Amino acid sequence: MPFTKRPRLSKFNYYSDEVVSECEEKLLPHQYEACVKLKRWFCEDNKEEVALVSMPIGSGKKGIICCLPYFLAQENQRQASREVFFSKPILVIAPNLEIASQLERAITISPDGIDENFLLKRKIVPSDLDMQKDAIPSGRKVEKTSDVTKEKFLNHYDFIIANAQKFLERSWERRLPSNLFQAVIVDEAHHFPAQTWWRIIEKFKRDAMVVFLTATPYRSDCREVIPRENLAYFLSLEEAREKRVIRKTSWNEFGSESDDDQCAIDLILNEIHKIQRGKNKNHPLPNRTPHIAIAIARNIDAADKAVGLWKNLFGDTAIGYHSGVRESQRERMMTRIKKNEVSLVVVVDMLQEGFDHPPISIAAILTNITSPVKFVQFVGRAQRIVRGGGEPESPNIVANVVTHTRFQQRRNYEMFQEERLIAVNNQNDG
Predict the structure, then answer these.
(1) Which residues touch 74 (CB under 8 Å, ≥6 apart)?
(2) Low-confidence ranges of the chain (pLDDT < 50)
(3) What is residue 232's three-state secondary structure?
(4) Nearest to residue 108, comparing CAs of 133, 91, 90?
(5) Of 5, 79, 153, 377, which has the highest C-beta tally within 10 A?
(6) What is the pLDDT of residue 214?
(7) DSSP bridge pairs for 345
(8) For 280-290, b where at least 16 C-beta lie within 10 A, e where not — what string?
(9) What single-letter DSSP state applies at residue 3?
(10) Cα gap 268→272, rounded to integer Å
(11) CB count in 10 Å sphere of residue 24
């Protein structure tokens, strides 16, 4: 369907038919199906109910966030005048600043992130500059806590992206009207309901369509995010793997007589390097992009020691990305990661969820992960498939999970493979 530039009150209303038509061909089938299911959810009897979408990590929740408003507006405009529907902004809530920044770059066009806009990358919207400005939504990540109290500021954009911490101060509840937003989309919804998130949803859900997106439909305390009857769309781990939506996983576990963490970590780092060399030679990523590993350590000191050990063994291609590093330095590190200039990223408390960089194909566990949700989220960093840019990724590429018996992760992995990890814990804790 051709795009025609025209005056508009809402980009979502006026371009809904064109965008939805393009999405049918250019979204992955499950992404398109999820958007259709959500459109039906809100046009039927569930309009005031929260809708839950559960899909494995790496299966494209970000794309759904970018395209969903056009699907919802298409249905709404058939039921009433365009002046009535989608005249208000959409609020997207992210669990942290890094995920909020990624969403901002995917949703909008910014000077430093034009290559990351989802609608342009998938060629859903034409690359013509005038059409980009007309059809692609405006958006803003909330930088200051005080901005969430400014109705005029929030109303200026099609999308408002904020991490929940921006709503910690209570004055916004008094100053903002409950009908401010057209829709509220909660990314990584297994964090719900922290007290702040609960207040946000309660404030706006009577007047806004509310969608929760998560790879783990249970929270860290093993309780359901919301009741299962609110499940609008579900993609199983098995189906996602069989359809090559995400990579299959491979388990690499070492055992040794030593009871020393450093010995175990040394074995893991050597195995990472061995796997990388084999994958780069036999199963290279598109455009010969090198395979990257991400590792999780117990604390900052352990992370820095792992980075130092890697540098001694294999050269200056490892970084420690954690809260002990200054923000300006982390920005430089992120640039290196995005440019694929590092072989190993060691984390402690950051990049464990929502971080999207498909050249990461190895997840190394250097500590005992006790949270089922944390295990699922971390392994998911290596499951994303490289898409676009010409040649497809080889189906032989897997996500390698590397660890040591000392860190007691086999049970987590077995339950994860059977998609019973969190559900079984829920029963055991009940």
Answers:
(1) 16, 17, 20, 39
(2) 6-8, 80-84, 421-430
(3) strand
(4) 133
(5) 377
(6) 82
(7) 294, 319
(8) eeeebbbeeeb
(9) -
(10) 6
(11) 11
In angstroms, the CA 55 to CA 233 distance is: 8
The encoded tokens of residue 331 equal: 């920005």
- Calpha distance 224→259 (Å, rounded): 37
Task: Report whether 95 contacts 135 (CB < 8 A).
Answer: no
φ, ψ dihedrals at 346, nearest 5°: -105, 125
Cα(226)–Cα(190) distance, integer angstroms: 9
Q: Which of 417, 372, 388, 361 is nearest to 240 (CA)?
A: 417
Cα distances from 51 to residues 192, 214, 339, in angstroms, run 13, 11, 37
Burial of 79 (0-12, 13-18, 19+ CB in 10 A): exposed
Do 54 and 228 touch, CB atoms closer than 8 A? no
CA distances, 346 to each of 8, 129, 305, 402 (Å): 47, 39, 10, 13
Closest C-alpha among 333, 331, 332, 261 to residue 294: 333
Lookup: tokens for 209: 């369509």
pLDDT score, position 203 = 86
First-last CA distance in the chain: 52
249-254 and 231-234 strand pairing: unpaired
CA distance 109 to 102: 12
Q: Please count the other Cβ atoms lying within 10 Å of the Cβ belonging to residue 358.
A: 21
**Cα 139 from chain centroid?**
18
Composition of the chain by helix, strand, coil, percent to 5 = 45, 15, 40
Distance, CA of 246 to CA of 232 (rounded, Å): 21
Q: How many angstroms separate the Cα of 352 from the Cα of each of 169, 197, 299, 365, 369?
A: 27, 20, 14, 12, 12
Tell me, what amino acid is at 252? N
- What is the per-residue pLDDT for 6? 45
Give the list of residues 6+ apart from residue 185 with CB closer than 8 angstroms, or none: 65, 68, 90, 91, 92, 93, 210, 211, 213
Name the one residue in this structure whose structure tokens are 């890697």.
Answer: 310
Structural contact between residues 183 and 211, judged by C-beta atoms closer than 8 angstroms = yes
DSSP, collapsed to helix, strand or coil, labels residue 91 as strand
Taking CA atoms, 295 is separated from 9, 60, 302, 303, in Å, by 47, 23, 11, 9
pLDDT recorded at residue 284: 93
pLDDT at 132: 79
